[in-house]
Amino acid sequence: MNKLSLLSIALFIALHVNPFANAEEIVIPPLLVITDLRTVGEESSSAEANAFSDFLRKEIERTGAYRIISRSSMLAILKANSFTAPCYEIPCFIAMGKLLGADEIAAGNLKRRGRTVEITLRRIDVSAENFLKTIHRTATGLDSSTMMGPWGRQIISEAFDIDPRRLAPPGEAEASIVNVDAKPYSVPPSIANKYPGMIYIPAGQTIVGSNAGDRVEIPPHQVFVNAFYIGKYEVTNEEYQEFVIETQREPPSHWVGETIPPGLEKHPVTWVSFIDAEAYCLWRGGRLPTEEEWERAAHGEKVFPYPWGKEFDENLANTWLSGRRSTAPVGSYPLGASPYGVQDMAGNVFEWVDGFFTPYPGSSIRLSESEKRYRILRGGSWNFSEYYARTTHRFARPGGDKSRSFGFRLARDP
To answer: How many other C-beta atoms are found inside a 10 Å radius of the C-beta of residue 274?
Structure first.
């Protein structure tokens, strides 16, 4: 075979055979610019905001989910091009991203009030020129050092859609992603004790719903709930009696006129409709809790089937399994309290909450016209099984219904 033939064969191979045909496809992560978080409020410090911004850069880069432009490179490029920063509006962020050659930009705010911190993060798609995702997270009891740990990694996981396992600190099998619940003891006394008999629930994100219950509980979804107060206990017969006497409202059917049956003074009031419950709350200067508020107070930021955890315990709530076969004095099961210290959120009596029954966002349920006017009861009862006492269970009934197992508790705005 002559040299010309060998050269022709080599040329054919070069043109028609891909030397990388069996090589693994190379995926280049998107380029992300993280701007320094803007401070909001007098107690917020630029040093803390910048430190948290650096924490975001370091942790996200470590996962390999994005390529990260360092802060020094970002500032140097912007300065060299006389780009005016910081940005506050999307056109400015888009212009910055195009100048830096970025696929996405992350920006946000940090607000500090004592040991309470609020973080807002927004992801911006540079090429599409729109927002991809916005999250807002609040926690109480965090200083600068503890912000940049499990709580901060949880924010990264949610904001940037990164598997928590990829955020595992070096040497750990999986990330220590935790939810920070603001316990009553972490709240300043002036706030915690503002309304005797009520518990302050801080603002924050809450998962509402469950895939493990009825169709009306599907799908679980995240909501932001503003701070509120909720009664530590259900409204009792003796508390409701004051309302009946002063307003001349019709008393519950098991009373004798305005007289409570002996021994039931400290039991939750029953045989009250949604209309009765709402009127009482307004008379007290409060309101009924919303469904989202009730669920946040019942399980906190971690979604557990019961206020105390994952497994049902018949000794922690007054359900049919407790054997009482009637209501119990409020607070009879202190070990069954929710993470915030709210008692009897499981069992004793179903509790009316504010709002109409509607399917959750993304649900396939379709309601009849009459069902759209239903109200909601939460928490289970003494004459129902533990299934109904779950923190995510919804019991839809007409607002005028009354029952020996229907009661309520008071809520207030801060």
So the answer is: 23
Please say which residue of 176, 193, 226 terminates a domain: 176
Coil, helix or strand for 91?
helix
Euclidean distance between CA atoms 105 and 107, whole angstroms = 7
C-alpha to C-alpha distance for 50 and 43, rounded to whole angstroms: 15
Same domain for 226 and 115, yes or no, is: no
User: Could you tell me how far CA 274 lies from the centroid of its own chain?
Assistant: 26
Tell me the per-residue pLDDT of 208-223, one tens digit each, with 9 for 90 and over: 999 988 999 999 998 9
What is the domain extent for residue 83?
A: 31-176
Q: Is 6 part of a structural domain of the chain?
A: no
Q: Which amino acid is at 235?
A: V
d(CA 187, CA 115): 9
For residue 204, which of 291, 288, 139 has the smallest C-alpha distance?
Answer: 139
Spatial contact of 379 and 351, defined as CB atoms under 8 Å apart:
yes
d(CA 261, CA 269): 11
Question: If pLDDT is split at 50, 70 and 90, which confidence band does 2 have?
Answer: low
Concatenate the DSSP letters of all residues of 95-138 into one string. HHHHHHT-SEEEEEEEEEETTEEEEEEEEEETTTTEEEEEEEEE
Same domain, 67 and 133: yes
3-class DSSP assignment, residue 351: strand
Give the range among 12-21, 103-112, 249-258 with minimum mean pLDDT: 12-21
Flag whether 138 is in a domain: yes
Query: Does residue 5 belong to any structural domain of this protein?
Result: no
Domain end: 114, 147, 176, which one?
176
pLDDT tens readout for residues 336-391: 999 899 999 999 999 999 999 999 998 888 888 878 899 999 999 999 999 999 99
Whether 403 and 334 share a structural domain? yes
List, in order, residues 6 or more apart from 18 with CB less than 8 Å away.
none
Count of domains observed in the chain: 2
Q: Which residues pair with 197 in a beta bridge?
A: none
Residue 17 lies in a domain: no
Identify the bridge partners of residue 32 per DSSP, sorted by sequence position: 68, 104
407, two tokens: 């009661």
Residues 201 and 164 in one domain: no
